[in-house]
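Section 5.1 Outputs to date
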Amino acid sequence: MSTTIEIAEFETVAGATEDVVLTAAQQAGLFLARQPGFLGRPLARRPEGDWVDIVEWASPEAAQAAAQTFPAAPEAAAFMGVIASVSRMSHAGTRLSG
């Protein structure tokens, strides 16, 4: 089964500590977990300080549907507030997993 991986690379606002980002991301994750087709979400930080948010969806349609409602979701507000800029946003279909 092919799934869809959503990759967002972003930088945070000045003064946003790792703990603040992680707490906000966990809150946003509550919204994501309730969305149809949500499969999982690791969040990584590069040594340079920017972040990579990776969300796995059952289909491109599930990813798109969640993307439409995520910015306005109350659970996403704090997470959206710590993001200064998104340097790259992309989607890819999986070919091998596990």
